[in-house]
Amino acid sequence: MKKLTLTLSLALGVSAFGTTAYAGEINGIFCGNDLSTPHQAMIKEYEVNTGNKVNIELVPWGQCQDKVFTLAGAGSPPDFAYMGSRTLGQLSSADLIEPSRLSDADLAEYYPNVLKTFVTDGVSWSYPVAFSTKAVYYNKDLFAQAGITEFPETWDEFLAATKAIKEKTGQPGYGMIAKAFDQTFHQFLNWLYSNGGEVLNDQGEVVFNSQAAIETAAFLKELAKYSQSGPAAHDRSTLKELFNNGKVASYISGPWDTRAGRLSEDINWGVAPIPYGPSGNGPGTLLITDSVVVFKNTGNEDTAHEFSRFLTNSENQFTLEKEWKMTPMRPHPDWAGIRAENPTWNVFINGIANGGPESLFTDFRGAQETFIQNIQDLLTSDAEPADVVVNIHEDLENL
């Protein structure tokens, strides 16, 4: 397995032999190929302030979570790891991680629905470090060519719009994801939460088999008629390229695609809330966080908690959100001015209120795989929406 290792440290005191003197040392894994400029600065600041050395190993997302589980299961975990919050149910049920040391006052700083992504049964299992909601990016010119001047608010309106776009412009009205990848699962949840549906209730019980879920499956099957061909070959990155080339009229993504250079200057694009379905009462979205988790039995738990808390405090998180173009997890006084200057932010922030979490299953990979397999069957075969929903529900109950 290819890995990238990066050690960040500042010389706080050098002995006569040229050896750096540190008060302590902690080792962590960050999922990803690089370390952001804000995180590099934060780590250096922490080292200066505490005298502790922080060693970071970077592991690409495709291998990262498996590596962390392997190390922890073998009894040699890192002191901390930055990974997807989807892993928290499995890590906590296996008794591999410690609860965070966020107080009730700390937790009250977050938008309430954000807590659903890392708190279960009243226990906070991590320090959330990155958060996103989703919205629809759309090509205003393609919509206008089909006679649509206002972005649709409901599923029926969106279906009519995508059909009109395909018939009148020859371009697909929507970019559909069905690749064997987590984004296929995520796409379904974006639409499910826009239709008032749930996967797990507050007691952790599977409640997926519902009218809302059946309507969502039926909607996606119909929407696929007006989407690009071969959805099983596509994820968000390939759809963005199609969008940039004017080959698809809309797709779902997070606020990071508003960064300079992400979307073509030749595209007259806009951002709108995800349309809502017949059982919904307004736009919804999937809420996803990444988290810093502290592992048990390392001997460095106190220092790992101290570092994790520092890395994710309100001011540091605000800095990261601005740099990365991530949806804010907490209100901050400076967001009012930022939102006024760039109203696009409003779509992503307003979506938090009706959003739902990437549920914390004790077998997150099993949950993801059953969604992917059944959604692919739904979109590429004669599978009936109600049967697909029953299959997913039964699989989730058996995880």
Describe this structure in words.
The structure is a single chain. The protein has 399 residues and is α+β, with helices and mostly antiparallel strands. The chain folds into two domains: 4-131 and 288-356, Periplasmic binding protein-like II (D-Maltodextrin-Binding Protein, domain 2, 3-Layer(aba) Sandwich); 135-284 and 363-397, Periplasmic binding protein-like II (D-Maltodextrin-Binding Protein, domain 2). It is 40% helix and 16% strand. It has 15 helices and 13 strands. The protein has helices at residues 37-50, 61-73, 88-93, 104-107, 140-145, 155-169, 182-193, 211-223, 236-244, 301-311, 314-324, 335-341, 344-350, 364-380, 385-397, and strands at residues 4-8, 24-31, 52-59, 80-84, 97-98, 119-120, 123-124, 127-132, 135-139, 250-253, 269-272, 286-295, 356-357. The strands form three sheets. Strands 1, 2, 3, 4, 5, 8, 12 and 13 form an eight-stranded mixed sheet that branches. A three-stranded antiparallel sheet has the order 10-9-11. Helix 7 (182-193) crosses helix 14, helix 8 (211-223) packs across helix 15 (385-397) and helix 14 (364-380) runs antiparallel to helix 15. The chain is globular and about 70 Å long. Residues 1-19 have low confidence and may be disordered.
Give a quick precis of the structure.
With 399 residues, the chain is an alpha+beta fold. 40% of the residues lie in helices and 16% in strands. It has helices spanning 37-50, 61-73, 88-93, 104-107, 140-145, 155-169, 182-193, 211-223, 236-244, 301-311, 314-324, 335-341, 344-350, 364-380, 385-397, and strands at 4-8, 24-31, 52-59, 80-84, 97-98, 119-120, 123-124, 127-132, 135-139, 250-253, 269-272, 286-295, 356-357.
